[in-house]
Design brief:
The chain is mainly beta. It is built from one helix and eight strands; from the N terminus they run βββββαβββ. About 10% of the residues lie in helices and about 45% in strands. A five-stranded mixed beta sheet has the order 2-1-6-7-8, covered by helices on one side. The chain has a three-stranded antiparallel beta sheet with strand order 3-4-5.
């Protein structure tokens, strides 16, 4: 994929480079102390993360939370995958920002903002805000 110039904003960990994403999913957190569980949209990265106890060590992929919704964001993983595919085909450069929306806070949209420099860098054309890539791809 040609996504080395596309970055994704996480909920609390800064930015991740889109070409490092190897999986996209959603899962529900458990309800704790009377608070309802939330739905997390996560990206798995091509980097190991480990944790352990005295009994052993477990290594898995590093996961980063992209959005936290009140209801299940059923189409969010597929929508982000589709957007990444479209951006890869164009050689785009810019920032994807997840946004929770909808009347029940159960939808996630992914807004793409191109790095609008006005000049070409890295061998490809610079994207303007009028580029054919949609500014927002709504879920559902």
């Amino acid at each position: 994929m040609a996504l080395q110039n596309v970055w994704i904003r996480t909920l609390g960990d800064g930015l991740i480079r889109a070409d490092q994403v190897i999986g996209i999913g959603s899962r529900r957190t458990p309800a704790l102390a009377g608070k309802p569980g939330r739905w997390l949209v996560t990206a798995a990265l091509a980097a190991p993360a480990g944790s352990g106890t005295a009994d052993g060590w477990e290594v898995t992929n590093l996961h980063r939370t992209l959005a936290q919704a009140d209801q299940e964001p059923r189409l969010a993983p597929e929508t982000l995958a589709r957007l990444l595919s479209e951006l890869s085909a164009t050689g785009a450069a810019g920032l994807i920002t997840p946004a929770v929306c909808g009347p029940d806070r159960g939808e996630v949209r992914f807004d793409f903002t191109p790095f609008d420099t006005g000049e070409a860098r890295g061998g490809g054309p610079a994207l303007s805000t009028a580029a054919r890539i949609p500014d927002a791809v709504p879920v559902g």
